[in-house]
């Protein structure tokens, strides 16, 4: 599902665009957005294996800090996702595709993320429920980077 965005897009063409976006409708652009849609659907399904299948082994996320201690690499990603997915009761997650640039075998996709998460109750050691925020919402601009790996695009950052 490609979701339209009301924001203008730098680098958009005056030719045909992918429905619901301002991104030029090319086979390469469609292939890249299909990878991100596979990721989004897998995230909604809490399907760690599929998320990993669209992620390149060079994946790294610096968690928005300069501290290498909180970096997430491909080797860490599976365990991290399984742990976080296990905490969730429900997920709503949309991506608006704003801009896409391809430079050789690398691509950058700028997006608007809108996600809501409802958490499972946390149990205390005595079996009682501990208080916690029942849900969280994230709305923000984000950027995915992808690398063409032979004929397939895979994410190298952005999860």
Summarize the model shown.
By secondary structure, this protein is of the alpha+beta class.
Keywords:
globular, 4-stranded antiparallel β-sheet, Nuclear Transport Factor 2, Chain: A, 159 residues, 3 helices, alpha+beta, disordered N terminus, two-stranded antiparallel sheet
Describe this structure in words.
With 159 residues, the protein is an alpha+beta fold. The protein has one domain: Roll (Nuclear Transport Factor 2, Chain: A), CATH 3.10.450.50. 24% of the residues lie in helices and 37% in strands. It has 3 helices and 8 strands; from the N terminus they run H-H-E-E-H-E-E-E-E-E-E. The chain has helices spanning 27-45, 48-53, 74-86, and strands at residues 60-61, 72-73, 88-103, 106-119, 122-123, 129-130, 135-149, 152-157. It has a 4-stranded antiparallel β-sheet. It has a two-stranded antiparallel ribbon with strand order 1-2. 17% of the residues are buried. Residues 1-12 have low confidence and may be disordered.
Question: Any low-confidence stretches, pLDDT <50, length ≥5?
Answer: 1-12
CATH architecture designation: Roll
Structural class: alpha+beta
Straight-line distance between termini: 18 Å
Number of helices: 3
What's the alpha carbon Rg, rounded to whole Å? 17 Å
What composes the largest sheet? 4 strands, antiparallel
- Mean of pLDDT: 88
